Each structure stands twice: as C-alpha cells, then as structure tokens.
C-alpha cells in the first residue's frame, strides 16, 4: 500500500508534515510517527500545525516538534505530507499554499469522500485511524524502526480514534497492530491511556457534572442530546478543549441510536454527532447543515441559538429515523 | 497450563461451575465460556451463582444459564470448578459445601494470595483476567471450539477487567487474544462494548452527575475521592448497581496517585480503591481495614459514618504515600 509513497518520499531532502487543525490524538500521533519515519530514513521532516497541540498530547510533541507554519519554513520543504484529513482546507491557513504550490503533496487519511487534488493519496475509509495506516508505512519499509516513541505515538491515535478500541472500526488486524506496538515499544497500555485520558482537572469533571445533568432523550428515546454553554465554562473556569470526549456520555444511554453534543460557546453552536446504529448515518445528518465526517461520527455548526439548534438537529434526525423505519 | 485440569475434568459426567458473588463481567464471561467448553467436550455443566447476573451482562446468561445453587442441583455434580475468586468464601452460601464436601474442586483465577484448599489451582496473578486464562483452556484443547458465544463471553471479561484494555495488566499477548477472539467469533468490539458499557439509564447518568460534583483532592493532590450517598440514589431513583464503574472518574484526575469511591448506602460505607501509580499498593491499603484485592484495584468496608470513613482512609493513604517518599 505504501510502496509508491515510500519511493516518492525518498527523493526529497525535506518534507513538511501537516496534521489537521484543531488537532486530536490520531493526527498528532500520525504526524509524530511520520516525522520520525522520515528522519530514520534520511529525510528531514518539519511538523506543522496552525493550532496548539492539546495539553493531553503535548508529551507526543516532545518526541518530535510541531511548529506553526510560516513561509520561510514552508519554503524549506520539497514536498508536503498531510495526515488525517482529506481536503486541503483541513490543514489551516496555508491550505492554499499546499494546494496551489507546484511542490508535490501527499495525503494519508481514513475519512470518506477524499479531495482528489493530491499527487498521491492513501485513503482507506475502513481503517480505524490514520495511525493504523502509518504503521503500514513502517511495516512496508522496516518494522524494526518502530521504537518506543513511534509505537506510543501510533498507539495514541488508534486508542483515541476508536474510543479505546471499542468502535466497530476495530478489526482483528487493528488489535494485532495494537499488540505489535506494545511489543515493539515495550510499554503497557496504561502508559499511553493515562496520559491521554486521565488528565482531567477537577474543573473539567465539574463541567462534565453540569453537562451530564442536561442529557435529554427525543424521538421515542432514540436520540440523546447533551449541551454545554458558555456560562457553564465560566462557572467552572474551563474552556472548549475541556469538552473533549463529552459526547460519549449521551451516547452511553441504553437503547438510543444516536447522540449529539451541542456546544453554545459564543460563535453559534458547534455539534458533535455520533451513531451507534448501523441504520443511522450521522455523516448524512451533519451534511444537511453543512457539516460532515464519518457514518458513526460527524461534526457540524449551527448559527444558533441553542434551542433552535437542538430543535433543527432533532428534526433532521427524526426524518432519518423515519426513512430507516420505512426502508 | 491447562493440560492437567483438562485430564481431570474429562473424568466427570457433571461439573458445577461457580462464579463469585456480586458477579462482574470477568467471572460471568469465564463461567459461561467454561460451561460451553464442558458441554462441547461431552461433560454436563451447571452454572451457579447466589446473586443475580447484572443487567448489562444478562445477554451472556442467554448463552448458558446460571442458576442459584441448591442441594439438589449441587448433588448432581461430580466436581466443582470455581472461577475468578481464589477462596471458597467468594462463592457464597455454599462455600462450605465446596470446601468440605469430598468432591474435587478446581480453581482458575488471577487474584493474589490464593487459598490452597483446592484439588487443583490455576492461579496466575499476572493474567489480565480469568477470561484470558480460560482462553488457554480452549487453546490447549481445541481452539476451533471458540465460537461466537465463547468469544464474546471471553472478550467481555477481558474488556471489563482491564478498563477497556487500558490497564497495565494488558500485555501484547492479551491484545493478541483479543484479536483472536474478534476473528474466531466474527464480531467487532462495539457489539460487546455497547452491551456492557452503553447501557446506562438517564437516571444513572444523573446520579453520576451528582457524584462527580463531590470529587475532592487530598494529600497535596495525590488522592482523589468521590462519594455516593443513599440520598443521591433516592433523588435519582437508582440503586447500588448504578454506581458500577464510577471510581474511574476520581481516578481520571491528572497527577493523582490513587482514588477512592465511598458508597454510604445504609450498611456502613463500601469503598473501591484504585491506584494508578506503581508506588501505591491499594491492596495493602484496603487490608488495613479488613478488605483486599489487587495492587491497583481493591475493595473494603468501613462502619461509617461517611466523613469518618473518608478521614480514616485518607489517613491510611497518607501513611503509605509517606513511606513511598522515604523509600
């Protein structure tokens, strides 16, 4: 799968590696591992992201630095590798630069409906994570290059993009890769999981406590919603980043098919949609309001106010549930 | 590892299989899988437990029935196999019967300090779960007997006893077994995880919301505590069973070494102790008040009241933290 990409990458002196804006465990893990792969194979790598690395992932950025892009640094690069996003706009302020500049750009990703403007794309929607794909970059070339840093970076992405190895994207192969990463990196899962998940502040848990009290069910208990407001953040001295992972709570209600987290934090309402039914495609649902993502996990934005966003999204969901029932 | 046990079991017509009282995913998963193994190998099996199977595990009891023990049913058995507990008292009202009766009794377990009164014991403290051990029963004999039911039962125990494959008890081998179970059983992790974890009621989430607002830190932010009171249960129309897994929340606070969940539900205070530091052994800690378990996960009981239980347990924890600092 990676043979052609490896051949192409080996021709360059310096490759700029982008992870997507508003970064998460999978894009940072893939970026750090890809940069280490390049360095191990004699190619300079520069990691770029417009946004700061989230607090719970900063230990990964110690394995390989990630900097804000600027023209001077980008000019040093002979090619670009973009990870865990399939359209240039996912890569922030220099997306035009990546798209229009005559330097080659390559993509590795697992999201649906990839943009086709890259010189080479490895796009595998079935993969649990971009980190699972990047493991194959090592496997294809020299798996002994998977050291502790690479292994922990890749494990982070697999862990965070699969809800701790619980999603239906996890195949026996994903689990074998997780096993190999533990073996090659000589670590135990808690060493990564505690860094990634057990880094909550008291304030964040108090925010979660408030958010959980808002969970409500709609459409004959098929849709669960939860919301977070700007006031809740102020009361608990927290920020938007503290809401990471909150959507798992409405999703955990027995018997529901889909859940939505609404975040009314000032600029309209941001929404995270999740499905736990093969019948409910939240990608379609999110696209109706200009968002998108995966069948089981998507994002969208609504101008607000909160009550209107909830009403509209539940209504769209209700239509989809009806069409499921009729089919 | 299982050769001798298999030879012994094959001599009997009927084997009574016990899971421990107040059953969890690991003991029920192991029990169901062991009963299926016996049946597949021409031996009658009867599953026993004093207590009801928890709601989120009742789908497993459809794979193989588990009944309350009584003399008549016990008399049918030629031998007993006790699972996921290492002392007869863990198996409830008929523990004397198992212990004193001249019928052979066998144990498979992964808890420390096993009782030595069994005719044969397979006690592997390093194993992630009893289900991981029971997989070896199949591996030793005929791994093709791992069908969907067996695979899902064993996967349940591995999942629930490792905090969703996150604990330091998870080795590359554990992860390989998880992969094999997904392959042999032809399922994806969400099919088990959603049954086991995503079966919360609105009331339970509202109880969790209340409990999370009680999280406090002690001893220079090294110990986190959380509590649940009888009043909270009444206000949210919930029961003790709804507190399952709550201890993960105080444990998720960044930088702490140990967490305790206190449940003041009437008959004194029940406590779940968890460590996420190699330096802090909560088994030692729990033993000081007559409880016990594993280094990283133990249980205990205090006569109360709640405030006194918190004071005493934090004080014992503080002593242990001091002795760690001195060592």
Automatic annotation (TrEMBL), chains A, B:
Molecular function as annotated in GO: nucleic acid binding
Span of the signal peptide: none
DHHA1 domain span: 223-315
Pfam families referenced in this protein's UniProt entry, alphabetically: DHH, DHHA1
Ranges of residues in domain DDH: 15-158
Entries under InterPro entries matching the protein: DDH_dom, DHH_sf, DHHA1_dom, Oligoribo/pAp-PDE_c-di-AMP_PDE
Superkingdom: Bacteria
Protein's name according to its UniProt entry: DHH family phosphoesterase
Organism of this sequence: Fodinibius salipaludis
């Amino acid at each position: 799968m990676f043979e052609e990409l490896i051949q192409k990458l080996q021709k360059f002196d310096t490759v700029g590696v982008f992870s997507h804006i508003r970064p998460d465990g999978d894009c940072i893990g893939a970026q750090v591992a890809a940069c280490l792969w390049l360095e191990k194979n004699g190619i300079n790598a520069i990691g770029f992201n417009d946004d700061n690395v989230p607090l719970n992932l900063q230990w990964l950025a110690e394995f390989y630095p990630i900097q804000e892009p600027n023209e001077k640094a980008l000019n040093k690069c002979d090619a670009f590798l973009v990870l865990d996003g399939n359209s240039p706009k996912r890569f922030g302020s220099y997306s035009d630069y990546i798209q229009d500049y005559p330097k080659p750009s390559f993509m590795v990703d697992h999201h649906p409906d990839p943009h086709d403007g890259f010189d080479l794309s490895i796009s595998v929607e079935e993969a649990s994570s971009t980190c699972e794909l990047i493991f194959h970059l090592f496997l294809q070339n020299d798996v002994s290059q998977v050291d502790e840093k690479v292994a922990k970076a890749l494990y982070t992405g697999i862990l965070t993009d699969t809800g701790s190895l619980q999603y239906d994207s996890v195949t026996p192969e994903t689990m074998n890769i997780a096993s190999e990463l533990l073996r090659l990196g000589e670590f135990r899962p808690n060493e990564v999981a505690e860094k990634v998940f057990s880094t909550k502040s008291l304030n964040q848990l108090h925010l979660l406590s408030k958010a959980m009290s808002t969970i409500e069910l709609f459409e004959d208990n098929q849709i669960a919603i939860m919301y977070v407001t700007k006031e809740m953040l102020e009361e608990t001295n927290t920020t938007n980043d503290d809401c990471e992972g909150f959507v798992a709570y409405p999703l955990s209600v027995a018997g529901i098919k889909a859940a939505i987290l609404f975040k009314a934090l000032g600029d309209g309402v941001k929404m995270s949609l999740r499905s736990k039914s093969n019948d409910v495609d939240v990608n379609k649902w999110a696209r109706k309001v200009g968002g998108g993502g995966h069948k089981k996990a998507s994002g969208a934005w609504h101008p607000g106010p909160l009550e209107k966003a909830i009403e509209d999204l539940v209504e769209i969901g209700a239509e989809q549930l009806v069409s499921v029932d009729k089919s």
